[in-house]
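WARN retry 2 of 3 for item q-0093 after timeout on previous attempt; input resubmitted unchanged.
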Amino acid sequence: MDVDPVIAPAPVIVPRNPDLKLRAASAVVMLAIAGTAFWFGGLALDVFVAAVGFGVFVEYLLLVGKIADTPASLVPKVVFGAVYIGWAALALVVMPELLVLAVLGLVICTDIGAYFTGRAIGGPKIAPRISPSKTWAGLAGGMAAAGIWAALVVLSAGYLLSAIGPTGPSLASALEVANVGVAALIGALMAVFAQAGDFYESWLKRRAGVKDSSRLIPGHGGLFDRVDGLLPVAIIAGTAWAASQAGL
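OK item q-0093 returned
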């Protein structure tokens, strides 16, 4: 009796990152919107910051609404969120646009440095119950990347200032004007605050029992997920800027 050969089923190929295209498309849209706001600047940028801040506050309310046991316990959480998010938004509005870009770059460098260093080295976790993926090595990498970014920003500013002098732009003159070492230390410290903001939002989400602050941005979660590290850094940088302008 003839026996039909057994034909093995074709292997199912699962894409490594099925939502990669979605995440990339969302990122392009976010960059286009933010880039347009920065291009026009002024009122357009202020409105953009205010809109993002309002969206973040709404997502924050959704999180704490799931955490609070009673209306009375919700009130201080709402007040804190209004101050925390509102202060950060106001700080971004009062800062000059170049400083806003420098702050954004610092937070982005922190995230990138922490991500790649954490994946490459691994090691002990900082707070596994709050954010299981974050390691001490990642924090160190984020601090190093932010320190390098801050040093480059200050050095670039010094180079541009040296162009005003009689000898023209000079790297040596820029190094004399710019305190690169102090800038690197400040940048590394700001990275710690950026990571603290990330941990704070992760703690809120863990208590609320959700993965993302919302589903507003396809493949990226919510607005709060995208700016959690920016909020404390913006508060510090904006407050320092306002104090310096007031002569304090």
